[in-house]
Amino acid sequence: MRTSIRTVAGVAFLASLGGMHAQTAPAPAAAAQRTHRWWSDRPAGARPYTTNAKTMPLISVKGNKFVDPQGRTILFRGLAISDPDKLEMQGHWNREHFVKVKEMGTRLVRIPVHPVAWRERTPAEYIKLLDQAVEWCTSLEMYVDLDWHSIGNLATGVFQDPMYDTSLQETYSFWRTMARHYAGHNTVAFFEFFNEPTTFNNQLGPISWDEWKKINENLIAIVRAYNVQAIPLVAGFDWAYDLTPLRLSPIAAEGVGYVTHPYSNKRPQPWEPKWEEDFGFAAAKYPVMATEFGGFGPPRQPPAGAAAATPQAPYGPSIIKYLEGKGISWVVWCFDPEWGPTLIGDWEYKLTPSGEFAKQAMQAPAQ
């Protein structure tokens, strides 16, 4: 059989004794249809939240104190809720939850925002939860401390657990968003920049105080470009416990508060001398807030055979007495039955022993 191929106007023809058959080139694939008009994107939270923005008296810093508009010293007693994303997913995100918080005697609510939740819900949707929290807190006369709840080393970008994974860029962007969105809203009194900076005994890499200081000064500059009234809270090292670097190198900005997390396991007894050395000294010059601690159990009994030993002082009364004696505001962890040390034992809001103690402390007359 004789076969020939010839081309006419770019089209190949196959000729054979059986006839002639045309083969056409395949049509080009259609371009993928894209619907995302990225040039129209706007930042999440760009529109400020102004609902009841001036209902609560404005809190500011004067010397080493938090003060109200009349210059009266405010010593905050409060508690931390769990992440709004967790609460919403588990069906407990509602005003009634905040009513239970208020019934504890709470004046300040710490709201932890985990980086993973911020990303997975998306900033635009997460902000809707925060707006609800601000609305409920305002109506119940409670202030808000927004907390970027990460644990680790922002300098190296290594963190303790996946839920805390973030970056310098994301951290800067988060606080730019918060500053712009809550500009001028008196209820959102505090911006707690980073929950617990730590190297985890160098497992997360090194960071110097100078590096940490510069990161926080950058954050303050970003925030104050939009929002001059929210009070920055800067944490110390050692999981936000140690403020000793302030002796030589405080943050180069005015109107800043400092954070400590004085859990009982940070130092052995007697606690008070170490508390004074590690963070208490700073309260003479700067406003300090213990934004996380807890685990208030009954007094520990001496071991068998040590009846003559001096009994150990209970942690709860000791830390509250010390903090209030130094004029240090405080926020206990955590109003959730799963995140320990827990203040509630279940979603019927039955208080744990730690919760009972915290409630009594929050409702007690000022020391």
Please, could you describe this protein's structure?
The protein has helices at residues 84-89, 95-103, 115-121, 123-139, 168-181, 209-224, 237-240, 271-278, 315-325, 353-363, and strands at residues 3-8, 11-16, 19-23, 60-62, 65-67, 77-81, 108-113, 143-148, 151-153, 158-159, 188-192, 196-197, 231-235, 257-260, 288-290, 329-335. The protein is of the alpha/beta class. The protein has a single domain, classed as Glycosidases (TIM Barrel, Alpha-Beta Barrel), CATH 3.20.20.80. An 8-stranded parallel beta barrel has the order 6-7-8-11-13-14-15-16, surrounded by 5 helices. Helix 3 (115-121) packs across helix 4 (123-139) and helix 5 runs parallel beside helix 6. The longest helix is centred in the middle third of the chain and has 17 residues, at 123-139. The protein is globular and about 90 Å long.
List keywords for this structure.
TIM Barrel; 367 residues; alpha/beta; 3-stranded antiparallel sheet
